[in-house]
Write a structure and sequence with these properties.
By secondary structure, this protein is mainly β. It starts with 33 loop residues before the first helix and ends in a 9-residue tail after the last helix. The longest helix has 11 residues, at 243-253. It contains two helices and 18 strands. Strands 1, 2, 4, 5, 7, 14, 15, 16 and 18 form a nine-stranded antiparallel β-sheet that branches. Strand 15 and strand 16 form a beta hairpin.
Length: 262
């Protein structure tokens, strides 16, 4: 089944993020270079949050979301962004052909710390499977009374469970300033998984076994707890991305970003 673009007309009355229409075309700025135009044909699922909408602008599978709490929005990398963290809602989407987690794929997203504490902070989930077997999240730091680190701060890409074993790729974030956008890209071609920050080289590791596709459950975007973080331009692909492709995404989108006022 070919991917569908979800472009709903604005309702005559305000009815929240399930009715709002994304304000910008789905393929802008994906049409800005030959590499990104070709890569856009590999997109299976995309969220921009423009118009304060949680509707996907591209969905190869089911697109109707389920709201858990009330999503919050703020100015984003481009247009609007989802607010993740304490007091925000999260959204569940059908996964299916939107993200074949047991096969091959990739997800790219932009995140911006807003209120990340450096001594003791909670975890904030960006994207996860409903059964917790797949995670992209910020792990908050923890220190004991003597100031010794008991949990390191970082952004994690996790695949874990009885079938796969537990594997984590992590980038330390103790030097990340609040208010600056960063590009996260997670690749999987199980049993191999890899992770890139800001268009850089991939870290790579592997899981113990390849599960059936239904093992991962549906997609959950955002978090209702943890440190406040903005999430924007979530894009899932039908295959892993190359270093050249993630560099092209970073080089294209980063000049469009603005610093978030604190």
């Amino acid at each position: 089944m070919a991917p569908v673009r979800v472009l709903l007309l604005m309702a005559s009355i305000t009815c929240g993020p399930l009715c709002a229409q994304p304000a910008a075309p789905w393929d802008d700025p994906w049409a800005s270079s030959p590499m990104l135009r070709e890569l856009a044909d590999r997109i299976t699922f995309q969220l921009t949050f423009d118009g304060d909408s949680v509707l996907p602008v591209m969905a190869a599978g089911g697109w109707q979301p389920k709201l858990m709490g009330t999503p919050q929005f703020a100015d984003g990398l481009i247009g609007r962004a989802l607010v993740a963290g304490e007091g925000s809602g999260k959204i569940i989407y059908p996964r299916g052909s939107n993200a074949s987690m047991a096969g091959r794929g990739a997800v790219a997203m932009w995140v911006c710390p807003v209120q990340w504490t450096r001594q003791n902070g909670g975890n904030t989930t960006f994207l996860t499977a409903t059964n917790g077997a797949f995670y992209l999240q910020r792990q908050g730091p923890a220190h004991n009374e003597q100031g010794v680190v008991t949990r390191y701060e970082g952004v994690q890409f996790l695949i874990r469970g009885e079938i796969t074993g537990n594997q984590t790729l992590m980038v330390g974030t103790d030097k990340w300033p609040n208010g600056r956008w960063r590009l996260l890209v997670a690749n999987w071609s199980l049993p191999t998984m890899s992770f890139s920050l800001d268009g850089g080289e991939f870290q790579t590791t592997g899981v113990d076994a390849v599960p059936e596709d239904g093992y991962f459950g549906d997609l959950t975007v955002g978090a209702s707890g943890g440190e406040t973080t903005l999430i924007d331009e979530i894009t899932i692909f039908k295959r892993p991305l190359t270093r050249a492709e993630v560099s092209a995404i970073y080089d294209t989108f980063k000049p469009l970003a603005t610093e978030v006022e604190q």
